[in-house]
Write a structure and sequence with these properties.
Strand content: 5-15%
Shape: globular
Number of domains: 2
Radius of gyration: 18 Å
Helix content: 40-55%
CATH topology of the largest domain: Rossmann fold
Strand order of the largest sheet: 2-1-3-4-5
Distance between the termini: 26 Å
Number of helices: 7
Order of helices and strands: EHEHEHEEHHHH
CATH superfamily of the largest domain: Response regulator
CATH architecture of the largest domain: 3-Layer(aba) Sandwich
């Protein structure tokens, strides 16, 4: 089961984050005061989840922690406006302070559910049927690009209460209107 790992050196902030997460129904696996503790917890629980952290940890940078984190974890970083551009990449999400408890709870829930919904959807779509060959990825996109598009669709489904087909049509329409490739538009939506 996907759970939250909180990696924050400030004990008061860590307690608040834990309370917000648990009150919203998102289980917390551990509260860690260092990057090493968070990494050990994540390694011991490869089923994944969300790493919730600030940019500063006493023993390593959050960038180092993210690079060593198993791929089954997404990272939700609490950043200031000045820190927003310091780190980016697939599976890294940033909330610029100040944030509300409701906003934080919503992001944690979405990230915990995202991979579960996506895996169930992919299993349903890509389940080989007898006598039918598996289809290659559409439009020659690589797996990373397809993941970005799926992630953007999921965010649109949650934010705008759209079905998957409606979210895909929304992306296609916006892509044509803006002249951006679908994957580039998906990146903008995620960031």
């Amino acid at each position: 089961m996907r759970q939250v790992i909180i990696a924050v050196s400030n004990k008061e902030l860590a307690a608040k984050l834990k309370a917000i997460s648990e009150q919203s129904g998102s289980p917390v696996r551990a509260v860690c005061g260092s990057g090493a503790q968070a990494l050990q917890t994540a390694t011991d629980h490869p089923d994944g989840g969300v790493l919730l952290s600030t940019m500063r940890l006493p023993d390593m940078s959050v960038q180092q922690l993210i690079e060593m984190l198993p791929d089954t974890y997404d990272c939700l970083l609490l950043v200031t406006a000045e820190q927003h551009g310091f780190i980016s990449g697939h599976g890294i999400y940033k909330l610029v302070e100040p944030i509300t408890a409701l906003m934080l709870a919503d992001w944690i829930r979405q990230l915990l559910l995202y991979r579960q919904v996506k895996a169930a959807h992919e299993a349903k779509i890509h389940r080989p049927q007898p006598g039918i060959a598996a289809t290659p990825p559409r439009h020659g996109r690589n797996t990373e690009e397809q993941k970005l598009i799926e992630q953007a669709k999921y965010l649109l489904m949650n934010r705008k209460k759209l079905s998957e087909q409606e979210a895909h049509r929304y992306l296609q329409k916006r892509s044509m209107q803006s002249g951006l490739r679908l994957v580039d538009l998906a990146r903008q939506i995620i960031e």
